[in-house]
Amino acid sequence: MTEATSSENTELTAEEVSEQKAVRLAKRERLIAASTDLGGGAYPVSVPVTDTIPAVRARHEGLEADVATGELVGIAGRVVYSRNTGKLCFATLQSGDGSRIQAMVSLANVGEDSLAEWKELVDLGDHVFVSGEVITSRRGELSIMVATWAIASKAILPLPNLHNELSEETRVRSRYLDLIAREQSRRTVLDRAKVNQSLRRTFDALDFVEVETPMLQVMHGGASARPFVTHSNAFDTDLYLRIAPELYLKRAVVGGIDRVFEINRNFRNEGADSTHSPEFAMLEAYQAYGDYNAIADLTQKLIQDAALATSGSHVVTWADGTEFDLGGDWARISMYDSLSEAIGETVTPETSIERLQQLAEDAGVEVDHPLPGKYVEELWEHHVKSGLERPTFVMDFPLDTSPLVRQHRAIPGVVEKWDLYVRGFELATGYSELIDPVVQRERFVEQAKLAAKGDPEAMRLDEEFLRALEFGMPPTGGMGMGIDRLLMALTGLGIRETILFPLVK
């Protein structure tokens, strides 16, 4: 079987892929047999690269057609298009960032044997090295007039059709193919790196210290979530993959690191959908002598700085072309007031659970929980959440659902907590932290009672954390934000698109 050389091929059947693999394996054997370097003919240890494709393109931007620059370069790239004619072969080479340049292999420049070997041995997907003069073709395409070439890495499997959209399943399961084929996929990886760099720059300018806390924990806590459980052979004990770094970061604040943050992985043994992943990247930060208002200001600045880093503006452009404005000061609304307005009835922390149950039944909202606050939150999500397109801080949550948060300084029955909603999904959460160890113990005891009744998300009583609080923690504001969700807000993509290698079954 002879492999077609154009990337305009129709999709290959499994049988055709198998046949092409056999052909390519034979070429691999031929390359290795002809090489004096052990294995070097198909997979050399290095090639004499002197330049990169994007650098060459940048130096010769706007060059007129049919020009010979006299500049000699050695570059490498993946073959994503190939057309072999009689005395002149054309190939498009692509670098890792998606930049492309044309390679022209002519009989006059490389000789009959080398040209024949190019035609016989080079396939789509191969990494090749070419050296020669930078020119423009008669059509004005920037090119390398090849003097010498070599296989840098022989591809055994054929590339997918680069002119067809990859299926979502292929994009997620074979991200390496997605990165080769799609500019958006490459851009998302680069945007994620820019976001992390921006977050660290903003924190550094505000004198925050980055730390790392344990991912394997003897006690899971810091959030209401179902943990993953594993076992340590060395300690002969069960351990939990962390659901949040909160309780360790607060220990750091107790120890005198007044402004502290961490960017790392969290694991929650729960459902997966367009906004949730069992493994996700999380930012948490704590600021001593701040409260939930100060930490809201910080969160807005972090996100707006990240928008500037990726888009050069507070107005970001999503993958579908939609423009989304993250600029200005973001609205702050009360959970109870906004719910009351939405249903036309005043709901307060004093509203009975019987009335809340009736409101839930009337709205078709299923809630099976002993806490009134859970009904308030579920009713709010049903009636209000979907209407929050612009960035909005939803303030002042029920006390009974927020065991790590300080009670509101002026409103009984609620805590100083906000959730930030963007595009209708929760992006971040922030607190005025509970620092009274006596009250914190009482809250943990209540959570332990819920756990004893079978609530898998309830927190456990953490004596070591309580002991740290007893040494005195300053008034503190804290926040947590999913990095994957931040990318969703900046790009308009779903969560699996923002994670380079998401967990798939």
Biggest β-sheet description: 8 strands, mixed
Rg, please? 29 Å
Query: By helix and strand content, what is the structural category?
Result: alpha+beta
Number of strands: 18
| Overall geometry | elongated
CATH topology of the largest domain: BirA Bifunctional Protein, domain 2
Relative strand content: 25-35%
Helix content: 25-40%
Q: Strand arrangement, largest sheet?
A: 6-10-11-18-17-16-15-14
The number of distinct helices, counting runs of at least 4 residues, comes to 16
Q: Which stretches of 5+ consecutive residues score pLDDT under 50? A: 1-9
CATH homologous superfamily heading of the largest domain: Bira Bifunctional Protein, Domain 2
User: pLDDT average, as an integer?
Assistant: 92
Please tell me the total number of domains. Answer: 2
* CATH architecture group name of the largest domain: 2-Layer Sandwich
CATH classification class of the largest domain: Alpha Beta
**Distance N terminus to C terminus?**
35 Å
